[in-house]
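Have a think about this chain, tokens included, and walk me through the fold.
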Amino acid sequence: MSFVSLFIGVIDLQFKEILQGNIEQIELVLISRLPRLLAILCTGMGMSVAGLIMQQLCMNKFVSPSTGATISSAQFGILLAMILFPNSNLVDKTIFAFIAAILGTWVFVYFIQKVKFKDIIMVPLVGIMFGNIIGGITDYISYKYDMVQALSSWLVGDFSLILRGRYEIVFLAVPLIILAFLFANHFNVVGMGEDFSKNLGINHNAVLLMGLSISALITASVVVTVGSIPYIGLIVPNVVAMFKGDRIRGSLLDIALSGALFVLVCDILGRVINAPYEIPINLTVGILGSLIFLGLMYKRLNPGSKRRARVRATGTGCSTPPVLSEGGE
């Protein structure tokens, strides 16, 4: 899919001419197509791992950077950087986005810790409402300071503007993914509760802070480089968990690769459907992601749907008894 992505675009790219040393074709690959591909892969891997970490630490499968107010907070940080430092570069915006993202995520975690009725749907609803509040404040301030148009590039995810020299910040996702893999077992333990963590001698708050900081920094680097892309950190970890389980160390690599593949496929669809025009990546990811999200919600909220359907089909209330393996296990 990466190879296919390199040869999709308004300008035709010929593999034969690249091998023959055509300067224009080589420059097209190095300046535009390859940076775009690398940004896509890092975005998919980073946002998927960020969602996995947040779901484990918050003990809820529907928490992610998009439903945990992390993306909205990062956008607010970018707006502050643009207002306070008009000549700020991408690094400065990333710093502001990271600080705002980690603060917003921590406030969200504080909210859900105070909520007594922690239903599987209630927690992400709190995050969505909190994110909308931050988004409303961002819109108001941007309108007041006449920066709506300047902020719009970070409100809509789009890879069309990715060029060499303005995408390298997204490479932060790679060392952060490695760091997440090294502390994967700690995240698993913290996800089981504070008391369980203390019994095993793990500093619950320190690991929680580190995990949320990793997710916030990944989100900030992606939002600054590409813009807002929803659902990646929500649906990819859930889909992979159906086949690989919930253990982070055993599924992190699969989730990272699956996230990269998902974003890559959505980007190719966005460039092919209405060629030579391009559909923004947040639209294609939003459509596919929302459909998958609805399916995940139905599956999570109706775990016994298959059994009820089987009972209705047979007309009895008895299900097939479990078959014991050899040795009675």
Summary: The chain has one domain: 2-302. The chain has 15 helices and no strands.
